[in-house]
Every structure is written in structure tokens, then in C-alpha cells.
């Protein structure tokens, strides 16, 4: 690879940072006492989490009759929330694996926190299938294991079982990937620690890292291999989640485009959540020079592209329902747009298709406040997308006498709130105890875009000499 | 300094041979129109869509790389540019195809199908609207692609970054409108052959096949040009990256193939399985299996080691495997309707196809000669070719 960069490239890290500045800047929030703002945020999140815990305890004790489900709509809020959180959990591994393989070096500023977000989001997602079983203490029945209770063996043809395998694999690999990236930074924390306990704990967590060339070599090889292994997982998890619906014969659920469409939607919503979190974090933790406006703009572009794929999928589905589909399929789509849940459908369309189009404008992509609002809009839209797919496909049964409506109960809403509480509690803890930015990786991109060169047709060279490293 | 042409030339003998194949292909096609019209139209549809896939695949490759500001690709970009400039070839093919609409598409002459499928079906699938749409698709592709190629070539004469910026915008437009056009074109040309059957992932599957075969033909040309003395511009690193692309899009193709296949198999709805039942028994079954082997299993297994993606020989072989695989993919898609339960390959399949491919190769080489092989003033060139300074000075390209 050339040591020179095109004149169009900009450095990834703003400010004239030295290597030591990076370590200092990233670790500073960890070495100070938590701020008042952190405590307020943490206590609020914890309270919301506790509300969720109460709600979950109550519904486990009483049973899922406490939900608004009925004979026609047997899946609603629970699975909506599950798919929503799993979707959020897609951005982290995309950034760490796929963008790594695509040599997108700006990923280094956001990969650590996005991966942490992924892991926490998958944990939030995991709650819902667990409690929707009704008897969560028997959850291990989804694991194939030799047992003495007769022919109790899971159905390997069930997508719900594939889900179990796909998500647990994804969670494991994401966790390992995230932790692997953490090891050199843990060693940095260890070396800077003043108290003995801290030194011991961080020493344990850094596995005796000594920073030798050989160790770095092993580390980078492992990182590359894990990136390659994690890449198919980014696609597989949401593909299989989509099959929970698409293998059925219900109009509105059975659609062969579901796997790629769900994956694009997941990345769409995941990146929006990353944007939401990064925009807050860069302000509060003073990381503006690491997570720059350029980073935000690039993430906006990914949101725009994946949002475009989602819009195209909506288009293809509606097109085929009108011109090819059978009458049930056509009724389904008309009913979505004009029926009793039309409000949810139009929230989905406006949040996922219309509003993101503003991101075509460069000025808006670089306007932090507007991007923040749009990122939340997209997240709302993607939640409603799952709600629309799940509830509206069910509420009009083949048998008109079974037609029904669904309304979430207060318990279900409290559970959803609790999952947000869990998410933010863990994320705030992460920001307190773990370096928010991958120090080692950011150091590696410090020289990016500094030494530039341009050729002209006569072959003379205009090197840009004022910025050298 | 003249940067508008180069000394690239194909040997006279090869040129004559290709011309011979073109003549033979055309004559076979004309003979087929009288002797076996349905079969020849089916094959012509395959051939035309195949050439369209190659040129559009390259066009999307150029556009995606412009839109993502990628640096590595610049030194080899003239090759996909030249390939993409051939969209008009399949455009002419599509005009010829209009005469075959009645032989190809049941919806063009059967009233029963309109009542069976959907009340709105006729609004979309009627002859005049079909022809108008075909024209619109090609206009969209050719106009936007020409705009990109023109800016790229102008930059050779005027070293101005503005051309790059313009092309980023044109490329975004090409990806959006060209992409939508290809989705609709694959529904129109391919899916409507079996109008009672539909699959929402079908257009996406066709996009992946198009891009995969586009990558393969780019690799073929890169390897050929490396072989005839341009390996200092088209380096092993470029080959390696193209190999990464081929590997990952081969996996992407099979991912979509499985999405469609698995979901239809699982749900087992008669309207949908009708498509696969025909293609899963007897000779068609073996071919369907071979399709996955060629488009995914072989490239995937062979290209996994890095060394393979840096080897000219292996990369050429894999590109050819994928190119054969793409033909087979289209063959399985189109021909069951015309050949019945047992597949067979005859002169009607082979000669017109080879003839059209020869024409395509000639046109690509002609285009390659017309412009400089290296986009000398592209601001990203320095990232694509570490040695670019010396090469540009020595004018050895």
C-alpha cells in the first residue's frame, strides 16, 4: 500500500494529537470521579430498569395472560421488542467486522462503543423470547440435550430453534471480539493504575499483555480471523430472525425477500442507535476530536444506503402484492395502508422512508442536532416496522369471525421501558469502567490522510509538504 | 502528450476468429427463427440478459467505487469502464427481443392468465407498456453510465477534481435509478416468464448474479491485460482485492439463493413450489445442483486461501467458472418453459451465445484502445498505484 494519501483524504482524528494525548484523552473520564450528570443518568436508568424487573416478575408469577394478546394475535409486543433490540445489535459487529474488512479506518473511533452497544442490545433482546415462553424456568427445553423424560427433543426444523443457535453464536462471537479488542487497552489501564486493587484487576483482565511485537502480531492475526468469522454472523442472525415469520404461510409474513430486507433494516436501525449514542457521548465525554463531524457524516451515509435498501424492499413487496400476488396478499397490504392499523403503517413509512431522505443534503448530515433527531426518528420507525409486520399480518384472520385488535397492557409497556433501562444502565457502566474508544486502534490511524500527494498529467508531483508526520 | 489512446491491440488472427464466430452466431440465430423459433427466442433472451449482466455489473462496480470514494480501484478502473460502455449492445438485443415477445411471454397472448393472476396484472403486463419500459430502462442506464465515463475521460485532459465530485453524484444517481430499473427489468424479462409464480427476493437475487458475473468479466480482462504486458499497472494487489470481491459476492449470491429456495421449500405453498418442482427432478435437478456448485462452492472453496486470490491462473479459472455458472443460472431460469422436463444443449444454445460474446469482447477491446489505460489525473490514483509517479513520467501505459 502506498504511504501517500490522496489530496481528498482528511485525517481521521482532528487536532494535532500525539500518541500520549490519545491515551490521556480517552482514559481521563475513567480516572476522574463520575460527574453529577452521570449519576443522574445512571439513577434514572436504574429506576426504569427496576420498573421493568417488577413488571417481569409480576408477569412470570401471574402468567402472560397479563399481556394484551388474544387468540388471533398470539405474538405482538414481545416479539416486536425482541426484533427491535436484535436489530440494534447489528451495528457493532458490522463496524468491527465488515467495515474492518472494507478497510474503513474511521471505524476505529466508534467500534469499541458500538460493539458494547451490540452486546447490551442482544442481552435486552434475549429477555423477550425468554419471558414469552410463559414458563421461562424451562427455557433449557430449547437446547437439545440428552434427557430422561422421554422423547423430549427439540424440533430442528423450527426457525425458533435456529434463532436460539444463531443468537447465542452471535452473542458469543461479539463478546469475544469486543474483549479481544479490549486487551491492549486493559494493559494500558493496568500500567496507569495507582491503586493495587485496580492494578490487579486490570492486570488479570489484560492477560499479561506486554506489548511485544510477537504479541501484537498474534493479536492482529486473531482480530482478522475473528472479523472474517463474524462477517457471516452479521447476516445470519437477522436472516434467521426474519425466518421466524417468513417460513409461515401468513400473508404479510411469508415473503422471500425477508432475510436480506431484515438485515438491511437491522443495520439501518443499529446505525441510527450508534448515532444517537455517539452524538451524546462525544459531547459529554469531550471526544469531539475523535468522533468528528466526518464520522457522523459517514454514519449518516450508511443510514442512507441501508434505509434505501429498506425502502426498495417495501417497494418490491407492495409491487408484487399488487401485480402478482394472490388476493390474500393484496388484501393484506391494502389493509396495512388503509385498515385500522394504518396509523402505524404511515408512521413506519414516514420515519423509515421519507424523513431519512433529508440525509441526502450534506448540510444536514453535518448538522449534529438534526442528525440526532433523525436518528431517533429512524429508531421509532424501525420499531413500528416490526409492529406493523407482526400485528397487522395477524389481526385479520382468514376467518372474519376471528378478526381482532391488539392493545398493549401497562405490563408490556413497563417491560419495554425496563429493557431500555437495562440498555442504558449497562451502557453507562461501560462508559465508566472501560475505555470508550479503542486507544490502540486509534493510534494506528493517527497518520491517516496526513502525507498527501497529487499527480498531474505531466507527471509532475505536487506533494503536500505542510502536513508531515 | 497524447493520453487518449494506447497501443493495445488484439492480434489480427484472433480478431478474424472472433468475426467468424459473430457471423456463425448470427446465421444460426436467423436459421433458428425458422427451424426452432421458441427455443431460439429463449436462448436469445438468455444471451441478451447475460451480456446485460456483464456490462451492468461493471457499470455498478464503477459507480459503487466512485460513490464510496474508494482509492484502490483507480488504476484498474478503465477496464470496468470499457466493459460498462457496452450496455447499448444488449439494448439493441432488447429491441430485437421485442419481436419475440409472443414466443416468450404467455401473458402477451393468453387471456386466461390475466384472469388467473390478478386484476391489476394486465395494467403492468401489456405489450406496449412493456416495450416503453424496456426503452426507459436502457435510456436510464446508458445516459447515466455515459455521463460517468465522459467525466472520467475528460479528467485525463484537464486535471480537475471537479470531475471526480461530479462522478460521485452521477454514480449515486446511477445506483438508485439504475438499480430500480434493473429490479423491474428482471421482473419484466425473467420473472414474468412464469407469470403465475412470484418471489419477492427474485430481483435482488438477479442483482447479485449480475454483479457477480460483472466482477468475473472484469477479472478476466485484468488477467488478460496483465498477461500481455500491463502488470505494472494492474498489480497483484488489485487482483487480490478483486478476488476478495469475487469470493464475497459468490457467498452473497448463494445467501440469496438459499433465502428464496429455503423459504419456498419450507412454506410449501403450491403456487410457489411449482417453480422449483420443475427444476428439482431429472436433468434439471442435476443442473440446479451444478448451478450452486459453479456459482458458489467452487469459487468459495478455491478462493479461501489468500495465495489463490493473488494467482493469475487460479483467478482466471474461477472467473470462468463463475461466468459459466451465470449462464447456467439463466438457462435454468428460462429454458424449462421451452424445453420441457428434460434439458438438452444444442447448437441453438451455443452458437448464438458465443457469437454475441465475441461481439462483446471486440467492442470492449475497441473501447479500451480509445482512452488511456490509466486515469492519470484521478486524485485517488496515488493510493491505487504506489509507483504511479514513475509510471506516469515514463508514460509506460
Overview features:
heterodimer, A: 469 residues, three-stranded mixed sheet, 3 strands, B: 397 residues
Largest beta sheet: strand ordering of chain A: 1-2-3
Quote the average pLDDT of chain B: 91
Low-confidence stretches of chain A: 457-461, 463-469
**SS element count, helices of chain A:** 16
Q: Helix fraction of chain B?
A: over 70%
Largest sheet of chain A at a glance? Answer: 3 strands, mixed
Shape of chain A: globular
The structural domain count of chain B equals 1
When the domains of chain A are counted, the total is 1
- What's the SSE pattern of chain B? HHHHHHHHHHHHHHHHHHH
Number of strands of chain A: 3
Name the assembly state: heterodimer
Q: How far from one another are the termini of chain A?
A: 17 Å
Largest interface: A-B, 48 and 58 residues
- Helix segment count of chain B? 19
Characterization of the model:
The complex is a heterodimer of chains A (469) and B (397). Chain A has 469 residues and is mostly helical. In chain A, 66% of the residues lie in helices and 2% in strands. Chain A has one domain (5-145, 152-449). Chain A is built from 16 helices and three strands. The two termini of chain A are 17 Å apart. The model of chain A is unreliable at 457-461 and 463-469 (pLDDT under 50). With 397 residues, chain B is mainly α. Chain B has one domain. Chain B has helices at residues 12-35, 37-67, 78-84, 87-97, 101-104, 111-117, 121-124, 127-157, 161-189, 202-230, 236-267, 270-279, 282-303, 306-309, 312-334, 336-339, 347-370, 381-384, 388-394. The longest helix of chain B has 32 residues, at 236-267. Chain B starts with 11 loop residues before the first helix and ends with a helix. At the A-B interface, β1, α8, α9, α10 and β2 of A face α7, α9, α10, α11 and α18 of B.
Sum this structure up briefly.
Chain A is built from 16 helices and three strands. With about 475 residues, chain A is mostly helical. With about 400 residues, chain B is an all-alpha fold.
Amino acid at each position: 500500500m502506498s504511504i501517500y494519501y490522496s489530496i481528498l483524504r482528511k485525517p481521521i482524528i482532528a487536532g494535532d494529537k500525539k500518541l500520549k494525548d490519545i491515551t490521556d484523552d480517552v482514559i481521563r473520564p475513567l480516572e476522574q470521579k463520575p460527574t453529577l450528570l452521570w449519576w443522574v443518568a445512571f439513577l434514572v436508568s436504574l429506576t426504569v430498569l427496576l420498573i421493568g424487573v417488577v413488571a417481569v416478575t409480576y408477569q412470570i408469577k401471574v402468567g402472560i395472560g397479563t399481556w394484551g394478546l388474544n387468540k388471533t394475535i398470539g405474538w405482538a409486543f414481545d416479539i416486536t421488542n425482541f426484533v427491535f433490540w436484535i436489530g440494534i445489535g447489528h451495528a457493532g459487529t458490522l463496524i468491527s467486522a465488515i467495515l474492518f474488512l472494507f478497510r474503513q479506518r474511521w471505524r476505529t473511533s466508534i467500534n469499541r462503543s458500538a460493539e458494547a452497544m451490540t452486546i447490551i442490545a442482544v442481552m435486552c433482546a434475549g429477555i423477550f423470547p425468554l419471558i414469552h415462553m410463559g414458563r421461562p424456568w424451562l427455557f433449557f427445553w430449547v437446547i437439545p440435550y440428552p434427557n430422561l423424560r422421554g422423547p423430549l427433543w427439540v424440533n430442528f426444523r423450527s426457525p425458533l430453534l435456529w434463532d436460539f443457535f444463531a443468537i447465542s453464536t452471535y452473542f458469543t462471537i461479539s463478546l469475544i471480539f469486543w474483549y479481544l479488542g479490549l486487551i491492549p487497552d486493559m494493559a494500558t489501564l493496568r500500567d496507569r493504575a495507582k491503586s493495587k486493587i485496580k492494578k490487579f484487576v486490570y492486570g488479570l483482565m489484560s492477560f499479561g499483555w506486554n506489548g511485544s511485537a510477537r504479541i501484537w502480531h498474534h493479536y492482529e492475526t486473531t482480530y482478522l480471523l475473528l472479523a472474517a468469522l463474524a462477517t457471516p454472523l452479521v447476516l445470519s442472525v437477522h436472516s434467521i430472525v426474519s425466518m421466524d415469520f417468513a417460513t409461515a404461510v401468513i400473508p404479510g409474513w411469508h415473503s422471500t425477500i425477508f432475510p436480506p430486507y431484515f438485515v438491511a433494516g437491522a443495520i439501518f436501525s443499529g446505525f441510527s442507535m450508534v448515532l444517537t449514542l455517539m452524538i451524546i457521548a462525544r459531547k459529554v465525554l469531550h471526544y469531539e476530536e475523535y468522533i468528528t463531524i466526518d464520522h457522523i457524516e459517514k454514519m449518516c451515509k450508511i443510514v442512507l444506503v441501508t434505509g434505501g435498501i429498506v425502502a426498495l424492499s417495501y417497494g418490491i413487496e407492495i409491487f408484487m402484492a399488487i401485480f402478482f400476488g394472490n388476493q390474500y396478499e393484496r388484501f393484506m397490504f391494502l389493509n396495512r395502508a388503509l385498515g385500522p392499523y394504518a396509523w402505524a403503517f404511515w408512521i413506519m413509512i414516514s420515519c423509515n422512508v421519507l424523513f431519512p431522505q433529508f440525509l441526502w443534503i450534506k448540510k444536514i448530515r453535518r448538522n449534529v442536532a438534526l442528525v440526532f433527531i433523525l436518528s431517533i426518528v429512524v429508531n421509532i420507525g424501525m420499531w413500528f416496522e416490526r409492529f406493523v409486520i407482526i400485528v397487522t399480518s395477524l389481526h385479520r384472520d382468514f376467518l372474519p369471525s376471528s378478526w381482532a385488535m391488539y392493545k398493549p397492557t401497562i405490563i408490556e409497556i413497563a417491560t419495554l421501558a425496563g429493557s431500555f433501562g437495562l440498555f442504558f444502565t449497562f451502557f453507562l457502566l461501560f462508559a465508566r469502567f472501560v475505555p470508550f474508544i479503542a486507544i490502540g486502534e486509534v493510534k494506528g490511524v493517527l497518520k491517516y490522510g496526513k502525507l498527501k500527494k497529487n499527480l498531474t498529467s505531466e507527471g509532475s508531483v505536487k506533494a503536500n509538504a505542510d502536513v508531515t508526520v | 502528450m497524447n493520453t487518449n489512446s494506447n497501443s493495445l491491440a488484439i492480434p489480427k488472427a484472433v480478431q478474424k476468429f472472433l468475426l467468424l464466430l459473430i457471423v456463425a452466431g448470427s446465421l444460426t440465430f436467423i436459421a433458428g427463427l425458422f427451424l426452432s423459433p421458441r427455443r431460439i427466442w429463449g436462448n436469445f433472451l438468455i444471451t441478451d440478459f447475460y451480456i446485460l449482466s456483464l456490462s451492468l455489473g461493471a457499470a455498478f462496480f464503477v459507480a459503487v467505487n466512485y460513490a464510496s470514494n474508494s482509492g484502490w480501484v483507480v488504476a484498474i478502473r478503465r477496464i470496468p469502464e470499457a466493459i460498462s460502455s457496452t450496455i447499448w449492445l444488449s439494448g439493441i438485443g432488447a429491441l430485437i427481443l421485442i419481436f419475440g415477445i409472443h414466443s416468450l411471454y404467455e401473458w402477451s397472448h393468453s387471456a386466461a392468465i390475466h384472469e388467473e393472476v390478478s386484476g391489476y396484472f394486465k395494467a403492468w403486463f401489456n405489450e406496449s407498456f412493456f416495450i416503453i419500459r424496456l426503452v426507459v430502462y436502457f435510456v436510464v442506464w446508458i445516459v447515466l453510465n455515459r455521463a460517468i465515463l465522459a467525466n472520467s475521460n475528460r479528467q485525463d485532459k484537464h486535471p480537475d477534481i471537479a470531475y471526480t465530485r461530479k462522478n460521485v453524484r452521477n454514480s449515486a444517481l446511477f445506483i438508485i435509478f439504475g438499480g430500480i430499473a434493473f429490479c423491474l427489468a428482471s421482473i419484466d424479462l425473467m420473472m414474468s416468464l412464469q407469470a403465475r409464480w412470484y418471489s419477492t427476493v427474485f430481483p435482488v437475487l438477479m442483482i447479485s448474479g449480475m454483479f457477480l458475473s460483472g466482477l468475473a468479466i472484469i477479472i478476466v480482462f485484468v488477467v488478460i491485460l496483465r498477461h500481455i504486458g500491463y502488470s505494472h499497472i494492474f498489480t497483484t494487489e488489485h487482483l487480490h482485492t478483486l478476488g476478495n470481491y469475487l469470493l464475497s459476492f459468490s457467498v452473497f449470491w448463494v445467501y440469496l439463493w438459499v433465502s428464496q429456495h429455503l423459504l419456498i421449500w419450507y412454506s410449501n405453498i403450491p403456487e410457489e413450489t411449482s417453480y422449483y418442482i420443475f427444476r428439482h427432478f431429472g436433468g434439471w435437478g442435476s443442473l440446479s445442483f451444478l448451478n450452486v456448485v459453479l456459482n458458489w462452492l467452487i469459487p468459495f472453496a478455491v478462493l479461501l486461501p489468500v495465495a489463490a486470490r493473488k494467482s493469475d491462473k487460479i483467478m482466471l479459472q474461477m472467473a470462468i467458472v463463475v461466468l459459466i455458472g451465470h449462464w447456467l443460472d439463466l438457462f435454468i431460469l428460462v429454458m424449462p418453459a421451452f424445453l420441457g422436463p428434460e434439458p438438452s444443449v444444442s447448437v441453438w444454445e451455443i452458437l448464438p451465445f458465443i457469437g454475441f460474446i465475441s461481439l462483446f469482447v471486440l467492442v470492449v477491446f475497441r473501447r479500451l484502445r480509445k482512452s488511456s489505460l490509466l486515469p492519470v489525473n484521478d486524485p485517488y490514483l496515488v493510493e491505487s498505484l504506489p509507483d504511479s509517479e514513475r509510471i506516469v513520467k515514463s508514460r509506460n501505459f
